[in-house]
Write a structure and sequence with these properties.
This protein has one domain: Metallo-beta-lactamase, Chain A (4-Layer Sandwich), CATH 3.60.15. It contains 8 helices and 15 strands. A 6-stranded mixed sheet has the order 1-2-5-6-7-8, with no helix packed on it. α6 runs antiparallel to α7 and α6 runs antiparallel to α8. The longest helix is centred in the C-terminal third of the chain and has 15 residues. It is globular. About 5% of the residues have low confidence.
Amino acid sequence: MEQLAEDFWNFRGSFKIAKIIDAGTQMSLVRRANGRFLLLDSYEVTDDDRRDLLRLTDGGKAIAAILNVHPFHTLHCRAMHEIAPGARLIGTRRHREHTPGLPWEDGAIEDAATQAEFADDLDFSVPAGVDLVTADDSVHAGSVLVRHRKSGIVHVDDTLNVLSAPGPLGKVLPQSSLKFHPMLSKALQKRAGAADDFARWARGIADDWAGTPVVCAAHSAIRHLPETSWNEEVLDALSDVDDMLGKHRAEYG
């Protein structure tokens, strides 16, 4: 667990592909203005991380809700519900479909009405022009981005990546700047205007969330940003996919 601001903590976890490559995963803890807590995503914390989480949250009883914001991050939802069984359990529609044995609330986190319940503490953004869930389960470019209003910290799964060397090498080799997910082209909706909608969304979030000091990115890393870097790096990431967006426009209009 790493405390990144007065009311924001991030947990980094292990997620192995083919039991060999550790791609990593994450979960964040936010203390609301009313003193209660919100979890962003689910990760089965152990050892010191588990003790710290329980110590901060009165044994899990002070966790008001668990907000699962990436439709394909489902492996640890049950474990976190067991740690905080009294917390509201909120996810995407895919969470309800793929883990039906859990007490999911009816409202989905991608819906504005659900997000509005947490608007005093959190800002949310869903990429425009992108399918949150595609027919190809390997395409994870869509997610619900979350910004903690008090600290300005952004929690994002997959939509924006930070490329970082694994293990000890990550402490000595430089991180990349922010990058959009490499399978973004497959997540874009197959319709006219989807590329323009995505580009408009990216420029909007670059401006609206300007000044973001830290990005907690799944699966790889926490990125600390100078004051103006969020805007610059999001716009650079958009520039990097400009050719791909152009091909989409050429095909669909």
